[in-house]
Amino acid sequence: MHFNFNEEEEKFRDEVRAFLDENLPEGADRHDPVFLMEWNAKVREKRWVGFSWPKEVGGGGGGIVEQVILKEEMAKRRAPALGTCFMGLAWVGPSIVQYGTEEQKERFIPDILDGKYQWCTGYSEPDYGSDLASLQCKGVLEGDEYVVNGQKIWTSLAMWAEWIILLVRTDPKPAVKHDGITCLLVKMDSPGIERRPIQNMSGGSMFAEVFFNDVRVPVNNRLGAEGQGWQVTISALANERSGIAEVTGMIRKLEELKELARKTNKNGRPATEDTRVRGRIARFEAQIEAMRLNGMRYLTKQLKGEPLSSETSVNKLHRAELEVTMGDFALDLLGSTGHYRAGSDAAVDGGKWQTGALNWPDVVIGGGTPNIQKNIIAERILGLPKD
Amino acid sequence: MNFGFTEEQELLRSEVRKFLDDQCPMEQVRKIMESESGYSAELWTQLAELGWLGLTIPEEYGGAGLGWVDLVVLLEETGRSLFPSPFISTTLTAAAILEAGNDEQKKAWLPALANGSAIGTLALLEQVDVLSADGITLLAKTDGDDFILTGEKSFVNDAGAATHFVVAFRTGEGAEDLGLAVIERDAEGVNAQSFPGIDQTKRVGSLSLENVRVASDAVLGTAGQAWPLISRLLDRGAIAVTAEMVGAAEGALYMTVQFAKDRIQFGDPIGRYQGVKHPLAEMYVDVESFKSMVYYAAWTIDESPGEAERSVSLAKAYATDAFTRIGIDGVQLHGAVGYTAEYDIQLYLKRSKWARPMFGDADHHYERVASLGGL
Ligand SMILES: Cc1cc2nc3c(=O)[nH]c(=O)nc-3n(C[C@H](O)[C@H](O)[C@H](O)COP(=O)(O)OP(=O)(O)OC[C@H]3O[C@@H](n4cnc5c(N)ncnc54)[C@H](O)[C@@H]3O)c2cc1C
Ligand SMILES: Cc1cc2nc3c(=O)[nH]c(=O)nc-3n(C[C@H](O)[C@H](O)[C@H](O)COP(=O)(O)OP(=O)(O)OC[C@H]3O[C@@H](n4cnc5c(N)ncnc54)[C@H](O)[C@@H]3O)c2cc1C
Question: pTM for this one?
Answer without folding.
Answer: 0.96
